[in-house]
Specification:
The protein is mainly alpha-helical. It is 57% helix and 8% strand. The chain has a 3-stranded antiparallel beta sheet. Strands 4-3-5 form a 3-stranded antiparallel beta sheet. α3 packs parallel to α7 and α9 runs antiparallel to α10.
Amino acid sequence: GRPRINIKDGGIGLNEVKGNDSRFVERRGSSSLIGLSKGNSLCNESMQRTSDTKVEVLCSPDLRKNSDTNCRKLSDDTETLDYKKLSRALLAEAVGIFIIVIFGVGSVNTAVTTGAQAGLWQVAVVWGFGVTLAILCTAEASGAHLNPAVTLAFFLVRREESFGSDLRNACVKASLYVVAQMIGAIIGGIVNLGMFGETIAAFERNNKIERGANGSERSAMVFGEYYPNPGFSGSPFKAGDVSTFQAMCIEAWGTCILCFVIFMLTHPRNPILGGSSRPMVPYFIGFTVASLISLYAPLTQAGWNPARDFGPRIVAAAAGWGRIAIPGPRGGFWVYIIGPFIGGPIGAYLAEIFAFISIPEADERYKDQMTINVENMSQPKELTTIVEGESDNSSPQK
């Protein structure tokens, strides 16, 4: 019969190879195209057709004896960066975090300076929808990390699927993702300052707040975050009631939950949200952010994202808040960087472990979902070109 293709963990694997058939693997980013051939012609054709991509060709012993074959194995060390694709991904990361800052931090501006948002949940909902929209707008280009802690989690837990198998290139890509996220967050902070500058000044005037002096974190909180939340209505806290260590643990815990949800919802062993596209994933990630904000914002303002905090905080420092913005009145700005960087990878790793727990029923669903008959595939023409053909012919039909 026709060969079958298994898709597992972000890649495609060959299910059967018979006789002297050779196998080759064409890798495009984190996915693979695999086909069968009977002789040199298909190997040579595949090498020529995909000269701009990395191709790994594994030949049968009979083919390796043939000195005319062009089949060869390229090591992972030969991977090169696709700068066009990378540039598009970096732009998407910057645009995505920009959207988050505009909607999320913008809702904090509106709530604090105008009182338009009635209660914490209204702010949290705007945050959640902002995250959802950012993911929907950018996921196709970059995977929609939109958070340095999430990027670190993907680098440590799903590096090959997200950044490729070459360690050096993966480090470069991950670092550039973080830089792009910071740039987008800073630009978002500048836009918010331009939009809300006058209302912030009016809020400070009405509440007798001197920008940059002690107590001005009540207005600076519309950019960066503080613990406990200085503007939470009816808050029973004084400045020392939430310690720096406790704030860091809260930020780590919230980011741990967020990354656990992200990695569970996007894991191929979790079929609960349907097929490969999983259109509801961005919404549930946004709902998770909103829920976490409603729980922990009174304590730390619920950051979970180093770029979201530090980018606008830089804008605040330059706009007159100075030391109140960086390093903060208690020197704790680093809480919103270190906490998420600790919690994010832990949550991602726990999700990976949980997803791989052997449950027979889940494994059967996983196999049923991820095994695809080649003849039913509507995906790329090159895959059909490679695989289709009668197995008893000496050369492929296409």
